[in-house]
């Protein structure tokens, strides 16, 4: 019997994982909730098991997923990103049931999922970071400690959920009054989102670049890095565009950050693939931010410049194989840019456009273009999940070539039905600061002009809409 691996996820990442599993000549078991019953991950898997009506609760149901793994005979589970990927109870349940969890141990996930503990481990290892507080105590005591912290380190101060993720649970606090006001709100939001109401403080790095390092480690502790990614272009502390490698013109700094990331991974006894995130200020100071204990959405840009299949490697490492390459074997070539094409209206503060049907879908292709998506013409986007439709990753030899390719692809990408981030991204590919590699996490705030475009002028879109109408009506309604 073939080795089976269960994919505990949905959307584009489920498809990415299934492809890697099938390339390894293993079988992929997909799971799904009712709103996903038409999704492509079910069709391409070797086997698919319905979990329940959902939404979002069955993909998070540890007991159910473990039961499915046992019933189908899966030896391992890949959690992807989101859902149970960084849930230490899930990794623990796998460990207890002799199922291989494709990721680090539950202990590592517990430690690194808690930003305060992670910071402590990294501080002990001598890794640089911004000043931060302990978890704030409940009630007046916590508020007083927070005000003292603000006094000492000067505002603005970041108020962060200790167990936060996905850019949620982060607030910038400008003064003492706001601090008093927002601590209880932050707490209750953290409780609702992460089932944990702990919050802590960090000094704010002003207009930083977000630079992260991809790490790979095997069971023997051999640890390598696959270089940097710049994920500074964000909305609401969430990434939109990712670039490998970082455009910072300071090779020494980038080398130091990569070495620091390996040191950080070792300090945490890290195993499998992970990402060490840093913030970099205008004076090229770098600060540890967190470690994500899973495959990242943006892993594709690193794959494009290194040629290393990160998911394939994750699976092999989890099955006990050693890393087959050393640091010196890893070569980086050119640039890669990923754009997250979301069903969102950038003009309406990126409001999700779920519930709409993709009436026309025509994707670009050609040299240096990679698409990781799951939608197709006629697919109705479930409203209950995130709005990512497809990730477009382009690779080029130079920065200019890569941006030129990206622009060509965006111009040719037709998605009719929901509004998407495509026209907004097209503006970015013509924006001088972007072209010059000059961006940090304040990029969107500084460029309101990116939000002006006409949704309806795109010729290709018009054409696509027409074809959709002809298709639906059986004749061309505009023909004489
Ligand atoms: P998450 O776990 O949600 O990814 P992070 O701690 O990685 O949270 O922070 C997400 C983003 O929030 C960063 O990329 C950055 O834009 C912003 N951010 C977080 N902490 C700080 C800080 N101390 N100073 C400035 N920006 C910050
Ligand atoms: P495979 O899965 O092809 O049998 P490995 O387990 O050795 O190979 O490697 C996992 C990933 O790392 C694959 O994407 C492979 O192409 C890549 N890789 C392997 N060896 C090297 C090397 N020396 N330099 C760069 N990439 C490598
Ligand atoms: Mg982060």
TrEMBL record:
<feature type="domain" description="ATP-grasp">
    <location>
        <begin position="119"/>
        <end position="319"/>
    </location>
</feature>
<keyword id="KW-0067">ATP-binding</keyword>
<dbReference type="InterPro" id="IPR011761">
    <property type="entry name" value="ATP-grasp"/>
</dbReference>
<dbReference type="InterPro" id="IPR011764">
    <property type="entry name" value="Biotin_carboxylation_dom"/>
</dbReference>
<protein>
    <submittedName>
        <fullName>Acetyl-CoA carboxylase biotin carboxylase subunit</fullName>
        <ecNumber>6.4.1.1</ecNumber>
    </submittedName>
</protein>
<dbReference type="Pfam" id="PF02786">
    <property type="entry name" value="CPSase_L_D2"/>
</dbReference>
<dbReference type="InterPro" id="IPR016185">
    <property type="entry name" value="PreATP-grasp_dom_sf"/>
</dbReference>
<dbReference type="GO" id="GO:0004736">
    <property type="term" value="F:pyruvate carboxylase activity"/>
</dbReference>
<keyword id="KW-0547">Nucleotide-binding</keyword>
<dbReference type="InterPro" id="IPR051602">
    <property type="entry name" value="ACC_Biotin_Carboxylase"/>
</dbReference>
<dbReference type="InterPro" id="IPR011054">
    <property type="entry name" value="Rudment_hybrid_motif"/>
</dbReference>
<dbReference type="Pfam" id="PF00289">
    <property type="entry name" value="Biotin_carb_N"/>
</dbReference>
<dbReference type="InterPro" id="IPR005481">
    <property type="entry name" value="BC-like_N"/>
</dbReference>
<dbReference type="Pfam" id="PF02785">
    <property type="entry name" value="Biotin_carb_C"/>
</dbReference>
<dbReference type="InterPro" id="IPR005479">
    <property type="entry name" value="CPAse_ATP-bd"/>
</dbReference>
<feature type="domain" description="Biotin carboxylation">
    <location>
        <begin position="1"/>
        <end position="449"/>
    </location>
</feature>
<dbReference type="InterPro" id="IPR005482">
    <property type="entry name" value="Biotin_COase_C"/>
</dbReference>
<keyword id="KW-0436">Ligase</keyword>
């Amino acid at each position: 019997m073939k080795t089976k691996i269960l994919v505990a996820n949905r959307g584009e990442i489920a498809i990415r994982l299934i492809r890697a599993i099938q390339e390894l000549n293993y079988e992929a078991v997909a799971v799904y909730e009712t709103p996903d019953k038409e999704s492509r991950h079910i069709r391409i898997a070797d086997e698919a098991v319905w979990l329940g009506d959902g939404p979002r609760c069955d993909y998070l149901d540890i007991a159910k997923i473990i039961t499915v793994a046992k019933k189908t005979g899966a030896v391992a589970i890949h959690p992807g990103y989101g859902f149970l990927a960084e849930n230490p109870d899930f990794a623990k349940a796998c460990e207890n049931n002799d199922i291989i969890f494709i990721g680090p141990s539950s202990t590592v996930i517990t430690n690194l999922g808690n930003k305060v503990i992670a910071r402590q481990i990294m501080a002990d290892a001598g890794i640089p970071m911004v000043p931060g507080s302990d978890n704030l105590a409940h009630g007046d005591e916590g508020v007083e400690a927070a005000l003292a912290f603000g006094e000492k380190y000067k505002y603005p101060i970041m108020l962060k959920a200790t167990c936060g993720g996905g850019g949620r649970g982060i607030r910038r606090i400008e003064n003492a009054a706001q601090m008093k006001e927002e601590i209880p709100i932050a707490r209750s939001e953290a409780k609702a989102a992460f089932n944990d109401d702990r919050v802590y403080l960090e000094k704010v790095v002003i207009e930083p670049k977000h630079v992260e390092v991809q790490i790979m480690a095997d069971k023997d502790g051999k640890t390598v890095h696959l270089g940097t990614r710049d994920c500074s272009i964000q909305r609401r502390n969430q990434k939109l565009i990712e670039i490998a490698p970082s455009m910072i013109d300071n090779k020494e700094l980038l080398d130091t950050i990569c070495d620091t990331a390996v040191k950080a991974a070792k300090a945490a006894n890290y195993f499998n693939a992970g990402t060490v995130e840093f913030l970099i200020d205008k004076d090229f100071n770098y600060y540890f931010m967190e470690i994500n204990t899973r495959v990242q959405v943006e892993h594709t840009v690193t794959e494009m410049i290194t040629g290393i299949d990160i998911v394939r490697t994750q699976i092999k490492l989890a099955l006990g194989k050693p890393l087959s390459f050393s640091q010196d074997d890893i070569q980086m070539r050119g640039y890669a840019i990923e754009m997250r094409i979301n069903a969102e209206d950038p003009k309406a503060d990126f409001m999700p456009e779920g519930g709409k049907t993709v009436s026309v879908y025509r994707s670009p292709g050609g040299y240096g273009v990679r698409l990781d998506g799951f939608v197709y013409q006629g697919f109705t986007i479930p409203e209950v999940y995130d709005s990512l439709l497809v990730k477009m990753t382009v690779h080029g030899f130079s920065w200019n070539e890569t941006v030129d390719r990206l622009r060509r692809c965006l111009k040719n990408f037709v998605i009719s039905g929901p509004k998407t981030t495509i026209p907004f991204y097209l503006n970015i590919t013509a924006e001088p600061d972007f072209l010059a590699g000059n961006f940090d996490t304040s990029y969107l705030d500084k460029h309101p002009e990116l939000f002006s475009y006409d949704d309806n002028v795109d010729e290709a879109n018009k054409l696509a809409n027409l074809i959709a109408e002809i298709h639906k009506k059986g004749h061309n309604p505009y023909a004489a």
